[in-house]
Specification:
Structural class: alpha/beta
Oligomer: single chain
Number of helices: 19
Shape: globular
Strand order of the largest sheet: 15-24-23-16-17-22-18-21
Radius of gyration: 23 Å
Length: about 575
């Protein structure tokens, strides 16, 4: 079995990860096991899943690392959480809680985590707590570095954690030097949080919908909104910290901000917030590069889920290389905590970078057969499943795919995906009608072969984007082949650039599809029912098939179809 190291994070997007003999082996979010999207609480089920994946019992774990030093850890149902948010600005006394969070509530978290671990049978484990932003930075540095001896500039930015919302650090040969830290009362992440809540969406989950609406607005009206936001939040004199102009925190100032924005169109508000974010944080990055002299930039924390911001940073003339850790919200904290601990105990050279995000459950033949048994669905085993899937896609079918190990994080990367022909402009309507029910303005995304990327996107620096963490402008004639997988307003896209020799099976489908159609790109969206997490198991995938109007599902080596099907 080897030496076990369990990484955990409780609270929003609760997650667990496990390393065996210093190698990251399994990672899963609690939402995938509970069926509660964005699960808030302790990752009991995820801990059990990690132990099961490596054949371990709770008593086998002697080391646990936790990706924060403070914060809530008990389950909070969504309705209760939303009720608290609705009351937040009506209760000024709650401002005291901000000082409590800034003080990191010494002792409160360790006591509760110990109790919860004991409940799961981990009675003998020693628990180490890693600072929230150090964990975000460690995920980016150890997970993404290409040369362990090269210095990197590592930036973190999120809502808040351990009293902070952003850091600037240099990492050299495993040594971290923090240059600047912004306290949570100056948080651009919390500004996005309250914009999202005010628009009737769910914070921690729907911020991407604001970014998706932004390109529809008129630029002049977006600039007006951005100008207003700049009067509330800017950079301090060093240029390395965010700084509010109000006495109260940005979070407490939200009612005043909202009042100044009242009467403006929602698309203008979202576009202004996006423009403001790009202006403020690209200046922050430029200042950090100037201050450190390091032009290789890595990023972590939930704000860097914003692909348009990442696109702007990557294009800066002062930046040589840029990458954001895949799914870099708080679900990445256990990974960063694991990396940090391994580097401290075994030496930084021993920490292996993240090769891919396929860290969850695999789909076996038995899994597939048991999931289909008794459902009335048909199970076929073709000789070359990738050729069959590509043929269905070329014929205009929409095909769900649940094969190989599940992806960690927020993005479906081919193993728990729904695939379709992106050249068909009617596909978004069909997908939304069949299953997705996405907001009408939200675009779908493409998966494309690296060897053919030049046909579809502008990527002069050859940036890697295997995890859909970067936005790209498309080529002038790309719409012919991928109209259904680009943004209708600005014709940009969020591609998964797939290596031609990628072993997950998606590359083989793309190659076979290219042979049939001449196109090396597919629409790729997540395999889930509306409002539910991405499917994890074969049984989850079959449930999606049965409860939607989808007709075809690749399930491991099999093709599953409904009794009356056009497949």
């Amino acid at each position: 079995m080897g030496d076990l190291l369990l990484g955990i994070h409780g609270g929003a997007n609760a997650t667990a990860a496990i390393a065996v003999d210093g190698h990251l082996t399994h990672c899963v979010q609690e939402e995938r096991l509970t069926g509660i999207k964005g699960y808030m609480g302790f990752p009991h089920h995820a801990v059990a899943a990690c132990l099961h994946a490596v054949g371990a019992d709770p008593g086998d774990v002697t080391e646990v690392v936790y990706g924060s030093r403070s914060g809530p850890v008990d389950h909070c149902p969504r309705d209760e959480w939303l009720r608290r948010l609705a009351a937040f600005h009506r209760q000024p006394a709650l401002a005291d809680s901000e000082d409590h969070l800034l003080a990191a509530a010494p002792g409160a978290l360790p006591q509760r985590v110990t109790e919860l671990l004991r409940r799961d049978g981990l009675t003998g484990a020693r628990v180490t707590y890693v600072d929230h932003h150090t964990a975000h930075g460690a995920a980016a540095y150890y997970g993404l570095r290409t040369d362990p001896d090269r210095p990197y500039l590592v930036l973190t930015c999120d809502g808040f954690g351990d009293g902070a919302c952003a850091t600037v650090s240099t990492w050299t040969a495993g040594h971290r030097t923090e240059i600047a830290r912004t306290d949570m009362r100056n948080s651009i992440g919390l500004l996005w949080f309250w914009f999202t809540h005010a628009a009737g969406f769910t914070p921690h989950e729907d911020e991407y919908k604001l970014m998706g609406m932004a390109p529809y607005a008129r630029p002049d009206r977006a600039r007006q909104v951005a100008d207003i936001l700049h009067t509330y939040l800017r950079l301090d004199p060093t240029g390395l910290r965010l700084h509010r102009t109000t006495t109260v925190s940005i979070e407490r100032a939200w009612p005043d901000i909202e009042q100044h924005l009242r009467g403006r169109r929602f698309d203008d508000l979202f576009a202004g917030l996006q423009l403001f974010t790009e202006h403020l944080l690209t200046r922050w990055v430029r200042n950090a590069v100037t201050a450190t002299g390091i032009r290789d930039v890595l990023a972590g924390g939930g704000v860097f889920m914003n692909i348009k911001l990442n696109q702007r940073i990557a294009a800066l003339d002062c930046v040589d290389t840029f990458a954001a850790f895949p799914s870099c919200g708080d679900e990445s904290l256990p990974l960063g905590a694991v990396y940090h601990h391994l580097a401290a105990t075994q030496g930084h050279h021993s920490v292996r970078p993240l090769t891919d995000c396929y860290l969850g459950d695999d789909i076996t033949r038995d899994d597939a057969q048991q999931a289909v048994a008794g459902t009335g669905l048909h199970l076929h085993e073709p000789g070359r499943i990738e050729d069959v899937v590509a043929g269905l896609l070329a014929d205009g079918q929409i095909v769900a795919r649940c094969a190989g190990r599940m992806e960690y994080g927020a993005r479906a990367l081919g193993n728990r995906s729904i695939l379709a022909n992106p050249a068909d402009a009617d596909i978004p309507r069909r997908l939304n009608q069949l299953i997705k029910q996405r907001d009408f303005w939200m675009p779908f995304a493409p998966a494309l072969l690296r060897s053919h990327q030049h046909r579809y996107i502008r990527n002069p620096d050859g940036l890697r984007s295997p995890h859909m963490m970067l936005g790209f402008d498309t080529q002038p004639d790309a719409a012919t082949d991928m109209i259904a997988a680009i943004h209708p307003a600005d014709l940009s896209c969020r591609p998964q650039i797939v290596d031609d020799d990628n072993a997950t099976g998606l590359a083989a489908i793309l190659r076979a599809y290219h042979t049939r159609t001449g196109r090396a790109v597919l629409l790729n969206t997540s395999l889930n029912l509306h409002g539910h997490p991405i499917a994890r198991t074969a049984a989850d995938a079959v449930t999606v098939l049965l409860r939607s109007d989808l007709a075809c599902l690749q399930l491991g080596p099999y093709l599953v179809t409904k009794p009356v099907s056009t497949c």
